[in-house]
Design goal:
CATH superfamily of one domain in chain C: Cupredoxins -  blue copper proteins
CATH architecture of one domain in chain C: Sandwich
Distance between the termini of chain C: 76 Å
Number of strands of chain C: 12
CATH topology of one domain in chain C: Immunoglobulin-like
Largest interface: B-C, 104 and 110 residues
Shape of chain C: elongated
Strand content of chain B: under 5%
Chains: A mainly alpha, B mainly alpha, C alpha+beta
Order of helices and strands of chain C: HHHEEEEEEEEEEHHHEEHH
Structural class of chain B: mainly alpha
CATH topology of chain B: Cytochrome C Oxidase, Chain A
Largest sheet of chain C: 5 strands, mixed
Low-confidence stretches of chain B: 1-10, 139-143
Mean pLDDT of chain B: 94
CATH class of chain B: Mainly Alpha
Distance between the termini of chain B: 24 Å
Radius of gyration of chain B: 24 Å
CATH class of one domain in chain C: Mainly Beta
Radius of gyration of chain C: 28 Å
Number of helices of chain C: 8
Oligomer: heterotrimer
Mean pLDDT of chain C: 90
Number of domains of chain B: 1
Chain lengths: 198, 557, 354
Amino acid sequence: MSAVTTPFPERSLEWNLPYRGKVGMVGLIVAESAIFTIFVVAYLFYLGKSLSGPTPREVLETPIFFTVCLLSSSLTIHLACKELQRGHRISFRILWSITIVLGALFLFGTAREWHRLIYERGLTISTNLFGTTYYSLVGLHATHVTAGLIMLGIVLLFSLADRVGMEQSARIETLSMYWHFVDAVWVVVFTVVYLIGR
Amino acid sequence: MSSDAMAIPSAGTAARPWVEVVHEWVTTVDHKRLGILYIVYALAFLVVGGIEATIIRIQLIRPHNDFVSPQVFNRMFTMHGTTMIFFVAMPVLFGFANYLVPLMIGARDMAFPRLNAFSFWLTAFGGILLYFSFLGGSGLYGAGNAPDVGWWAYAPLAAKAFSPGHSSDYWTIALLVSGFGSVGTAINLIATILCMRCPGMTLNRMPLLAWLNLVMSGMVLIVITPLTAAQIMLLVDRYLGGHFFDTQAGGSATIWMHFFWIFGHPEVYVLIIPCFAFMSEIIPVFSRKPIFGYPVMVGATVCIAFVSLSVWAHHMFTIGMNSYANSFFTITTMVVGVPTGIKIFNWLGTMWGGRIQFKTPMLFSIGFLFQFLIAGLTGIMLASAPFDWQLSLSYFVVAHFHYVIVGGILFALFAAFYYWYPKITGRMLSETLGKFHFWLFLIGFHVTFDVMHIPGLLGMPRRIYTYEPRPGWETLNLIVTIGAFIQGIAILIFVTNLVLSYFKGAKAGNDPWDAWTLEWSVSSPPPPYNFASIPVVASRRPLWDLKHPEDPDSRYE
Amino acid sequence: MRRTEQTRRLVSKAAGIAVLLGGGLLAGSLCFGASQNPSQVPSIFDPHSTPAESIYQLSHFVLLITGLIFAVVFTLLTYVVVKYRKRPCDADREPTQVYGSTQIELAWTVIPILIVVVLFLATARVIHSIQDAQKPASALEVVAIGHQFWWEFRYPRLGIITANELHVLVSDPAQPTPTFLTLLSADTDHSFWVPQLAGKTDLIPNRVNHMWMDPYQTGVFLGQCAQYCGTQHAKMLLRVYVESSGEFDAWVHAQQQPAVRDEDVSAGRRVFETTSCINCHAIGGSVADGRFGPDLTHLMSRHTIASGAAENTKANLRLWVQTPDAIKPGSLMPAMQLSNPDLDALVDYLVTLR
């Protein structure tokens, strides 16, 4: 067919499509949710099926304080994003740092619990089905928290170099979506492991 | 307009050092280049997978053959399946999606070009890692080397106890890594399709190829990831002493099956849906009519995507689930055939009343329709659980899924190659060689895979390196092997066509097929920036509107 | 030019059908031709037991429906391809552009749904009749345990442990004596498949499965493991001997005896009992009680060894003990590294284990 010479219709319409960063992040969250779902299913399936070794009821202590830390960090990161949208770089930096501290506290809490479980209660990943599913599920979540903290840390560095302003709002919000996801997963893991599972 | 490309200083007049060319390709983030890389990579592995299949067929040409040892045979069928699914089918389909989607939606590139490149290289690395197992895998008592646990790696066969050494780990990690690549590309496609369509291209006006790749990508997000999760669990078992699939510790072998098939069944829809996309673009052009029932085609695909998530245990009818579970999966599997059948009818409806041109892409499309119909019907037979209690794990199933994958997916891919090769390279593929390729492959395919159903009916299980001289099995296996060789020759003709036409093929021009979607409005090959100015569209077939200003689609939509 | 194109396509379609039909006829002829020796072809279309028969009947219905669907759609496809091909007189005129039709879409949605409902109901009936069948008091109970790469069969109520060759009672439809099997696995996944007697059911570690059969004709029925279980999955063969009550009782009685103790072969027995043979194998009434490998108490009552991989002859026994890889490479039987005199004595002993 010969080359066409008439132009396409003139652009005269409103054309707004979603921000691709957010869409991409939603995609990532959906994929990660599927992975977590499988680990949760394995955890629930194997409840009560361990042939020996400590049971959840015997050894688990509900980590209320550290859960509060993590869930509050969702609030602080939300506020941080709002501050950045208004262009308040300093308050953004402060709230962002608090988020990181709260997340790090949570990780510290997980590490402390694991230390107690391994050395005082004799529960390792190879002890029994409970050990395997518990450490895998909580560990998978902790890995995602760690990855999140690394990303938050990088943003903090950029912010300290005064490179994060109102123009980066959309990207920061996209990252905060990841952080909210990590918190939401913890709500599920917490419910399954510490509420249902015991 | 886009075809009046801006003059770019020609970078090809003086011979550039090859290092520079390689560097350009290795560091590219251009969706077109990455698409080509995916496709070439897949073609290379198609040949490798084909060699593995040939080895299998030679070993099975007669009973008690000793062409290869049982250990080698078991590695062959494991590698053949794994290669074809993960390093041929997935990459080639992602390659076409990568190349075509931005062009067809009027965008200049994908949403995340660097993620695009990263995803490709992850997938590529996965394949190389898998094949490195032939060299590097070592283990106890000669049990190392390439994986030999079948492409499903059922527990507890894949556990350390039954697969010492590292062969299973190559399988696990190669697929884990390339799985991340697949998820990355899926995220990219979704973001591209939702966020980068040109003005006027509402979702309702998007080419079906874009729609179906959107659905496929959505599926990939929730379908590949269960396999990722299961593989992480397998690694925990094998290296951290975990018990996910350790039956001695109370673990379950069947939970691996559930996790695997929750991935494995929707995966085959992930593979076929882009092929449906090819058919939905090619059949209309060669019938000279728009696709029949565009909204129904979209709806049916979305239906297939959802329903396919509920059928997985039809691969597990023999594991001893209770009658209610077996009945459930019977009906869901039969139900998923309904939207699939609707699509076949819509393609027929497209051809009805048309003016069909039997160019090579259309020949392969017609072959697809015929074969996909039969494959779907043998699928219905397998959906009936009691019938499946006889048919599963036999050569009947092997014939069924090869009918879908070779007779369906590969035929659609060949159609896509012949249709879009001119756009990608600027040259037409030889119609003569194309027709030889088609007829020879058609004959070889039917000789092999029609006949292959029969040994299954006569009790021949799958994954056996040799068999007893039962009446019928011997002759039938011989015929199947002969067909394999015929297909091999046809593939050689195809590869020859690809290579020769690159240098000697007729110049294609922008729009050799008189088609209607945006990729045909740019030069062949397209300039790096795709469109000089972003197009604005008013219907599903913008080029039809331009060519037929007196009767544009926009009036009817 | 286009005409020949057309003809060629039709010819190829016809050829495809011919291959399909020819293949079907071939299969059919094999099935029926094999009726002279019914047990030699383990065809799913040659049922000799109720579960296999139910499946066979259902398969007719399914094939009928799918055959009809194929006929209709194939006819449509051929018609479209012939009638609507581009003819030279069409030149560059485009045909009428039709976008769809709601009625047609509804029709070809509703009709397939109805077909699915019908097929499902027919199928569900058979699922229940096979899976939910009650075990009568007269049933013969067998426990089948899958191993890499052999079958262990235990008859708990009869006190018998044997391997690879399953003996069952023929079942008279008037007074059924079906065999109910409990399926277990000692290592990895296997699948019990004797096509003429029943659909296959898997043997999965840490899981108890059940199946049943009621063969109504005596004879030998062949099958093999259908779930890939490792290197020698291919040679994990099955034989089911369906016997009249007289034959079966005689077999049971012989199996219940302790091992034959023939003093002439005491040298061979000593070799057996002082080598690692006893770690894996059991011989009733002796010190050997290993369970990893097949029970050898009545080894010579079986027609094959190595789970069907070889005929049970003295020469094969000798070869199997000395170099198992020559018969079944990758099986878990170790090469025993015996000296020739020891090996001869051992084999002389083994052939007395009737």
